[in-house]
Amino acid sequence: MGLFKNWLVLASFLALVGCAGSPSTPPPVAAPQAPIFTPELGLSDSQRLSKAIALLSSGNNVGQAKVELQAYLNQVPNSKIANSLFTQVDTPIGEYFPAEFVAITLTNGESLSTIAKQYLGDALQFYALAQYNNIANPGKTTIGQVIHVPLTSKAQAFIDFKINKGMDTSSTEQDHQAGNEFKDQSGPADSDVQLEVATLTGIAQMRLLLAEKHYQAAIQAYEQLQPANKLNDNDTRALIAAYRKSAIDNADSNPVLASTYYQQTGRLIAQGGDRLLALEMFDLSLQLDSDNEASQRRYVSLKSELTDAYHRDASLAFRRQELERAITLWQKLLIIDPEHVHAINYLVQAQRLKDKLQLLE
Fold it and tell me: pTM for the whole thing?
């Protein structure tokens, strides 16, 4: 009997040890919760709609854009702009657009908004067009990029119009001219939408005006932007086109204003790094108004930067016996500054040396 009790005690002890040593069952892992978006407090209706458009334009935080649109629609349920954007966000792209498309190549000053305006009849369909092309950020497209435009009835009508006019349908190069003529035939714009666009604020208003090619109004909207508003690449290209077109249009009737427009064109181009083209814009500005002090300063500064850079690079190429490159660079320099003495002398030397070497071959 005592032996039986001892075995019972030992069995109980081993059972307890086994339980203590066995791994505990881990708690179930909670599934990640979807982010909860709420409308921003303190916005007016126009500010809220502008915020939603800005969010969709950058491809950032589409969920936040959607709740801002819903909040706006709670106040303005008949808004054609907000309803269009909400539908684009809420509808699978395969249901929103037909599968058939035409491929076109972007040219300077064009964007998804301008394509949406010309081909789809609504600049605000930029978001659906971005989704159709798997473009994460609608504000980032490049010159030469191929865009698939869904063949809606409006797109087909615009393409047929270009074909009948003998225009190139593979790029956007002639779209501005075609769009103006096509618009005259297709009737006036929706007045309700135009009124709602006028209530937008900040960068959203500027982008829509640029897409509609209302350049004077777009320039005014841009010049009233707060510093916190950041331009994307498409904004900059479209503004350059707007300022340049406005400068050309005003050159005869108001040369001082046109000079200012060329000055702004040069400033935007210089920010993008093309100093030579920027110099050309400042030169055009000074041809129209020699008293434009801002253009004078930028022209002198850029001219000095470019001539120094060309002469430095040409001299280095000359020492390395890279004569073709040296000659090309000094020739470019002399286009900018025909009286640059060092460039003239070195260019003559480089050309003579090149001729001698060719005779020895």
Answer: 0.69
